[in-house]
Design brief:
The chain folds into 3 domains: 6-49; 54-103, no CATH class; 118-247, no CATH class. Helices cover 50% and strands 10% of the residues. The chain has 10 helices and 6 strands. It has a 4-stranded antiparallel β-sheet with strand order 2-1-3-4. Strands 5-6 form a two-stranded antiparallel sheet. Helix 5 (118-145) packs antiparallel against helix 6 (150-176) and helix 6 crosses helix 8 (203-218). The chain is flat and about 75 Å long.
Length: 251
């Protein structure tokens, strides 16, 4: 881990207590800003100097925290579960970039074992539709405020009905192939889209998946209900695109 000397972090400034502000009223704000900026930089560097601490699952029970040196003494393996205080969930050691670098682990494919349930996916869809339609309705309302012609207002209202599904499609494609692998609704429910090996999907796969949702809807939503009967809880569009909706492991 990189070492930071105090010379990188501390700056010498004139102490506010040593300045008679009443004699230099125009410099008050300048000295305060310099002081705050220096304090912020010092705290930032201080936290950088602190070694990362990890909680390690030993015999099924979380223990720690341990420093990286202590983890080496425990002779951890790539498949051991760890987390930091900032992480939401435990991950295998090989999934954590810092540990891969310091301990020489190679990242391995993690086969998904826990999948988003039907009710989680349904709730995520509801949240996403509320978000998309909210954006469209508010946008249309603002535009209508500046339009006096009734016919134009009607066109804007009808246009919103066409624009909202298109926006929803683009929104899902972009978010599901992003680094977070999930729309806002899925992020709230802590589920995400991945390929059959648990990896982030490509833009092409995201496009195919979201186009295939048409078939899940066109079958009177039977395509969605298939998730009840498949081992990996795949809906019809997941089967077509070769994707999964997974949730993170819980310890």
């Amino acid at each position: 881990m990189a070492r930071y000397s105090s010379s990188h972090c501390l700056f010498q400034i004139v102490s506010i207590k040593q300045v008679k502000f009443q004699q230099y009223p125009k410099l008050n704000l300048l000295f305060v800003l310099i002081y705050l900026a220096t304090a912020t930089a010092t705290n930032h560097c201080y936290f950088k100097m602190m070694p990362q601490q990890y909680f390690l699952v030993i015999n099924g029970k979380p223990q720690g925290p341990f420093s990286v040196e202590q983890l080496k003494e425990h002779k951890i393996k790539p498949g051991d579960f760890l987390k930091t205080a900032a992480m939401d969930d435990y991950k295998e050691a090989h999934e954590i970039a810092e540990l891969r670098e310091l301990l020489g682990f190679k990242k391995q494919s993690v086969i998904p074992q826990y999948f988003g349930s039907f009710d989680q996916r349904l709730m995520a869809v509801a949240i996403d539709w509320f978000f998309v339609w909210g954006v469209c309705v508010v946008g249309a309302f603002i535009v209508v405020l500046f339009v006096n012609n009734a016919a134009t207002r009607t066109i804007i209202a009808l246009g919103t009905l066409v624009f909202a599904p298109l926006l929803s499609f683009v929104y899902h494609v972009i978010m599901e192939c992003s680094a977070r692998q999930a729309t806002f609704g899925k992020q709230i429910l802590k589920i995400r889209v991945c390929d059959m090996q648990g990896e982030r999907i490509s833009t092409g796969m995201s496009v195919v998946r979201n186009l295939a949702r048409i078939f899940s809807v066109a079958t009177f939503f039977i395509g969605y209900l298939l998730s009840f009967f498949t081992k990996q809880q795949q809906a019809l569009h997941d089967m077509i695109a070769g994707t999964l909706v997974m949730k993170d492991r819980l310890i």
